[in-house]
Amino acid sequence: MGGGYHGKSTLLKAIERGVYDHIERDGREYVLTDPDAVKVRAEDGRRVEKVNISPFINNLPFGRSTESFSTEDASGSTSQAANIMENLEMGCSCLLIDEDTSATNFMIRDARMQALVSKGKEPITPFIDKVRQLYEQKNVSTILVLGGSGDYFDIADRVILMDHYLPYDVTAEAKRIAQTHTLGRQPEGGKHFGEITPRRPLSKGLNARKGNKEKADAKGLHTIMFGTVQLDLSALEQLVDPSQTRAIALMLKKFGEMADGQYCLSELVGKLYSEIGERGLDIISPFYGQHPGDLALPRKYELAGALNRLRTLVVK
């Protein structure tokens, strides 16, 4: 929590990068983050392929199902729901969320809006009604940067105030405020978080061929050319080096050889990482045994994130 320009997002950025080792005495000695922590955000326009987003979005108009939801052009709230569910599918342990890059209607629905728009007419269950369930039922924590809503005081385990880039524990004061300034809003979405549904990628959606050649190249940190598709990874904020992006491009190509519909996404990723652990990262290189190229091993979350954003992805 805290006012603008007092270091909230800066602290979260440091926590994001804390999933990686860093140089001694670089100023981040105390920034140590669970390696399975993932930054998620809204991402208007991204593709979603058969993701179960029903814990957050349900009862769409015309009876459209959200248990296997697909779209070529996701809205802010839908994309944020998909981003969360995809990372839960991969086994993340902590979500890192900044209100500045979140969809407002995904994060909160206050009492006045509940009074005006009944739940029967609102398909979105806001994150505020799922975050405790996510922790208690799925063992997934959340670090949330907020500056515009105190509604989360009621459910937070710890409230840290950033003041001139210094952190202060104000949990007791936040809880006192929550008790004296009641919200009047009603919890939504039921008592259970919902199901996390595994998906099985198929090789036909992972064809790197472009004309007579195969193309799987990185263009800087956030762009991959894969076959005839340009893949935008700008929403994967924990990518830190183009060498990771180059590795992801080649790993996607490797998936095309491995994906037979028998393995779910997390199993497929685990299988590839096990092989890399045994034989080395250069097994993904077309120059295996000669030179590996400029490659660095990405985390499984960024690899899966790239696969999920591939517009040719097909799953069952």
From TrEMBL:
Pfam families: ABC_ATPase (PF09818), MRB1590_C (PF21117)
Stretches the record annotates as Disordered: 184-214
InterPro entries, per the entry: ABC_ATPase_C, ABC_ATPase_put, MRB1590-like_C, P-loop_NTPase
SUPFAM superfamilies: P-loop containing nucleoside triphosphate hydrolases
Residue intervals of the ATPase of the ABC class C-terminal domain: 1-198
Top-level taxon: Bacteria
Ranges of Basic and acidic residues composition bias in the record: 188-198
Domain MRB1590-like C-terminal residue range list: 215-316
Protein known as: Predicted ATPase of the ABC class
Organism: Lihuaxuella thermophila
